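Can't paste images in this forum, so I'm doing it all in text. The chain is below; anyone willing to post the predicted C-alpha cells underneath?
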Amino acid sequence: MKLKSRCIPCLLNRVIYEADLTGANEATKKRLVQIAARIMLEAYDRNPSSAAVATEVHRRAYRELGSEDPYRELKRRSTQVAQSLLPEAEAFIESSEDRLAAAVMCSIVGNAIDFGIAGSASSPEELAASFTGEIQKGLQHDDLAILRRHLDGEVLYFTDNCGEIVFDRLVCRELKKCGVSLTLVVKGAPVLTDATLEDARDLHFEEVVDDIATTGGFAVGVDFQQIPAALKPQLDSASLVICKGMANYESFSETDYAPVAYLLKVKCKSIAEDMGLPLNAHAVKVVG
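Text version of the structure:
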C-alpha cells in the first residue's frame, strides 16, 4: 500500500505515543514530531509504500528516544492477557464444528491488540473485556474456503503482534493437521508490539510448526531487501503465504507474491479502502 495523506497524522501520533512510553519530555516530543514530519514530507512525492516510510520514522524515533524496545512492557502485558484467555479460546475451538475457522477467529480478534493508533485497543486488558463478544461476531469477509484450497505443500505464516501470537499458535496447530509444512516468520528485531524470535520460543512454537524464521531486521511489516537469503526461495515457492495484521498487508500488497491470505481486524480507514473491506471488519482475504 502506498503512503496516504491519512498516514501522516497517524504516524505522528504513534511517535508521540512512543515518547510517552519512555517518559520523554516535551522538547523531545517536539523534536520527534519535526523529524517524523520531515521524513514523511520528503518521501511523499516519491509515492513510497506506507510500511517503508513507517519503518524509517520509527527507526529514527527509537534512536532519538534511546530505546531499542519502548513497547517491551506492553508486549509482556499483552501476552499475559492473551494467555489468560487461552482456556476460553480452547473451549471455543473444541465446541466448534470447524476447528480451523474457530482458531482463525480467535487469532483475528487477538489482532485488536495494537497501541498508539486510532481504532485499536488502548490497553491489553481491553481484549479481556471484549474477547467473548468479539469471537461470536464471526468474519465480515470470509475467504477461508479459498485459503483451504491452498493448504498443500509449504505454508509461510507471518506473525504480527505479541499477545495475538498466543492465538496464532492455535491456528498453527490446526494448520499442521492439514498436512502442510509450516514455517513461522517473526520479526528480526523489536519493532512496535510485533513478535520476535524470543517471543515465539517463549511460547514453544517449535512444537506446532516445522521451522521458525525471521524477517531479518528492523522493519514495519517486511523489508524485502533485508530478508534472510534462505527465506527468499521459500517465499517464491510457497503454496500459501499467510499474513497477520495491517503492516504485513502494507508490505505484501506492494509485491507479486501470491497467493497471500490476509488475516486481520481492519483498524485503519486507508487500509479498509485499499482492501475494499469495511472498517473494523474481521477478515480473511485471499489475494492471488
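The beta strands are 141-142, 154-158, 181-186, 211-214, 240-244, 260-265, 282-287. The mean pLDDT is 96.
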